[in-house]
């Protein structure tokens, strides 16, 4: 079952040429979820071959422009392209007012339902839950209200032993039940336990997203043991004072946070425009000194949650 | 004296990969003016080497997203980059409310003065006037209130006859006055009329911008004899009904309008996403059948007003 993340933008507040404001796509089991929607997100989606109408859930962390200014354009384009499917939007409560004001003056009446779910800036909350996936928000600490997000898989089905299924001539209609733990009774009345027809389910995976925040221990439980953590890393640690002043994190701190939270893999992003693209390896080296399994996020690249 | 226009975006409502929402830069005498500011304008400015802090006047035609959604991002980035100079913004009155709401929730307090000038959607009005340039707005007819803009040069100074200036040893301090019509009295008391020391001033030039509008005769006087006219050309004429329904113009109509207004040169833009880039020549051919001196606007290209 696919679980991966496409980086559309990894720049901090001021975009640079070919470094875009924050946005990313999570693909879980071929369902697409958008996290943050900085200016230009709809063009980035087109560039990387993502059909925006496949996105049914959008999560906005906070109301700094580099995280939401692409939203009115994206929602409008979905409308112009004939979308009919409901779109669920999760974000800070005032976002609804901002959207309404733009649509009022452009006289836009969406042809689909835009269902807004305000996020809770002070407590962890479940935003979305299906059998396969649960999305939670949790408070970060930034200059304004901001939440992170955790995409947590539910229990996964066991893997079938194909040879045994063929040998026992198990009808296709029963397969799914067996993967989820039902036993199979053959035509002679013999019971074959699910556990004998399958290998154990893989562990549920999770992806955690933290941007923007100053380093605080409060959100460590929310990202604990995530297989993949995207964490902002705006500055080098020599800019620690500036990071605290602007409620951001240094790359060394991002590494320490990944270590403390025992995550599997750390992805850095939200780079300050002060660093040229070739200088980003400085951020990477610093984070790796605290947490070796770290990579720089690169726009246009998919990262597996594993 | 330089007078030219850089196209940053020429797509209609739905952007395409490498065709951006509407925005353009007018350079008159090395002063930069921005017309419209679709999503991604700040990135397009960077891409084409325009320092946004050189822009002191921004003109917004109307409040459809593809003409203003890049504004909050651009204004914020100017702030983050330390701008101190006043910025004058001209556009529909509700734009001020939209900006204020965004800045309220992002808790942005601009470090420079943003001076908002609401445009008049029903009458021609002078927005800005200096000795060298006057910018007027005039009503267009679109689904919502919309104005075009005319950049009109003032009287231009006469051109000096360099040889005569050298021969008469005219002091540099007097040169500018002579170009503007003052006579020169030499040390023997002989008067040399300005007209003998100069060749006549070139005619004042003008640039007119019309996007978005359905074809109506009302605005023809406002674009009359513009040296360069940028006119929207959303559809081929076979889509005339759709153009009327959506308050847009066909390319054949744009050509006819250019002819009726006796402009010097027509530039097409605001192309519908239904036309692939290689199909835009169909729009061009159609406009040229009515007005031969027509070109397709191309993003990243400067067009002279001459």
Automatic annotation (TrEMBL), chains A, B:
Alphabetic keyword roster: Endonuclease, Hydrolase, Metal-binding, Nuclease, tRNA processing, Zinc
UniProt GO MF annotations: 3'-tRNA processing endoribonuclease activity; zinc ion binding
Cofactor-binding details, from the entry: Binds 2 Zn(2+) ions.
Keyword Lipid metabolism among record annotations: no
Active site: 66
EC number: 3.1.26.11
Pfam families assigned to the protein according to its UniProt record, in alphabetical order: Anti-Pycsar_Apyc1
Positions that bind Zn(2+) 2: 66-67, 212, 270
EC class: hydrolase
Lineage top rank: taxon: Bacteria
InterPro entries (alphabetical): RibonucZ/Hydroxyglut_hydro, RNase_Z/BN
Family according to the record: Belongs to the RNase Z family.
Quaternary assembly: Homodimer.
Protein name per its UniProtKB record: Ribonuclease Z
Source organism (scientific name): Sphingobacterium corticibacter
């Amino acid at each position: 079952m696919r679980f991966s993340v496409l980086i559309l933008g990894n720049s901090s507040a001021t975009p640079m040429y070919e470094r875009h404001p924050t946005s990313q796509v999570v693909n879980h089991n071929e369902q697409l979820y958008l996290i943050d929607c900085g200016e230009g997100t709809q063009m980035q989606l087109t560039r990387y071959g993502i059909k925006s109408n496949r996105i049914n859930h959008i999560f906005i962390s906070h109301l700094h422009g580099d995280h939401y200014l692409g939203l009115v354009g994206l929602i409008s384009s979905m409308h112009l392209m004939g979308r009919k499917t409901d779109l669920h939007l999760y974000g800070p409560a005032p976002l609804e007012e901002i959207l309404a004001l733009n649509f009022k003056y452009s006289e836009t009446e969406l042809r689909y339902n835009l269902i807004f779910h305000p996020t809770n800036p002070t407590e962890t909350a479940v935003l979305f839950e299906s059998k396969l996936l649960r999305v939670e928000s949790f408070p970060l600490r930034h200059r304004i209200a901001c939440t992170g997000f955790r995409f947590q898989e539910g229990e996964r089905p066991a893997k079938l032993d194909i040879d045994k299924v063929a040998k026992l001539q198990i009808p296709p209609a029963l397969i799914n039940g067996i993967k989820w733990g039902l036993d199979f009774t053959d035509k002679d009345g013999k019971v074959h336990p699910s556990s004998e027809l399958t290998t154990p389910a893989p562990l549920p995976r999770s992806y955690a997203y933290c941007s923007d925040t100053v380093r605080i221990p409060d959100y460590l439980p929310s990202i604990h043991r995530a297989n993949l953590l995207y964490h902002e890393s705006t500055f080098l640690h020599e800019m620690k004072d500036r990071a605290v002043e602007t409620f951001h994190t240094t790359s060394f701190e991002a590494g320490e946070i990944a270590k403390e939270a025992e995550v599997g893999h750390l992805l850095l992003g939200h780079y300050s425009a002060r660093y040229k693209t070739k200088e980003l390896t400085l951020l990477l080296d610093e984070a790796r000194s605290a947490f070796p399994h770290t990579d720089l996020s690169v726009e246009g690249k998919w990262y597996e949650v594993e």
